[in-house]
Amino acid sequence: MDFDFQWLLIGLPVAFGLGWLASRFDLRQWRRDSRDAPRAYFKGLNLLLNEQQDKAIDAFIEAVQSDPDTTELHFALGNLFRRRGEFERAVRVHQHLLGRSDLKTEERDRAQRALALDYMKAGLFDRAEAAWAALQGTPFDDEAQRALLSLYERSRDWTNALTVAQRLEKAHGGGYASRIAHYGCELALEADTAGRTADGDRLIGQALAAAPESPRPVVLAGQRLERAGRRAEALAQWERLREVQPAAFVLLAEDYARCALAGGLAGHAREVLLQQYERTPAMDLVRALALLDPEDEAAAVQRLSRHLRERPNLSAAAALLARPSSTWPASTQEALQASVAQAARPDQRYRCAACGFEAQQYFWQCPGCLTWDSYPAQRIEEQ
Predict the structure, then answer these.
(1) Do both 336 and 372 map to the same domain?
(2) Could you count the other beta carbons within 10 Å of the beta carbon of residue 298?
(3) 380 and 347 in contact (C-beta within 8 Å)?
């Protein structure tokens, strides 16, 4: 059968015209949708800038419904929910994003990070841990590692905290040695509680190697030697603390004196404590020297008088008033001692330099803000 070219000449213009009409229709529809979505978006942005968050959320919801494929609108809406404390709605928005199969890798990572932040703000730390762990190997890996480190500290999971800190130390070339030492010390204390002394010794050794100038491993190493009856080695270990952190030596001054007395090394300890007092005068050193000379009342009173004269504080006054005096009536001495001791008590605390949290005992990690090494070695009254 012969092909009639006349139909071809007629069909081509008709097909072209139909295609052109279809494209114009789609273009008008796309323009209409694109105008509607930005209008709602800019309306929400304007309301947000005017601090009208409720109306801004409604506008963003309208924009998302008009253009459900726009990821930026989802992120904006989820962040608004999180800032308002509506964590459940924020989680749903970001989980919806993660459920999309057409989401690009970088946007999927952003949604995973946003979801982790939602869980953190909501206090769902177990879910936050899983969400941050999913970001390892992504552009948010460093932030995820730091967040995981904070979570492990909060839950006192020292094993995982140590692993993450070592990874960050290697990645950044420093900055986490002190934390690594603290984690090793915490694990050593747990090992001692469980009766695994050898593991404790190994962990303290690793902490010393990780942060040679950190005071805590040195303190614990000396205490372990003293418990083992190796008093001369314990004193030598604590004297090393005077080299790396002289101000922190006062924290163990009385332990140092007792260890020296038990080991028959009171004379050597007296010289060390007197030298340290000249460098960093502190009431703890005065008390330690009194332990070494329990029978020398005159020397004790002289040291107390000097300390009170050079560094006035109620603790020294109370200690001096506690010493016997033939010129003071017993009732007066007792009243003075009670009043001074009561006035001194509020100042006999340690205060966190980061958040101001005060405590009667010394903490390596602040219970208030969880900062390590934020407590000065001196009590409030001596700062």
Answers:
(1) no
(2) 9
(3) yes
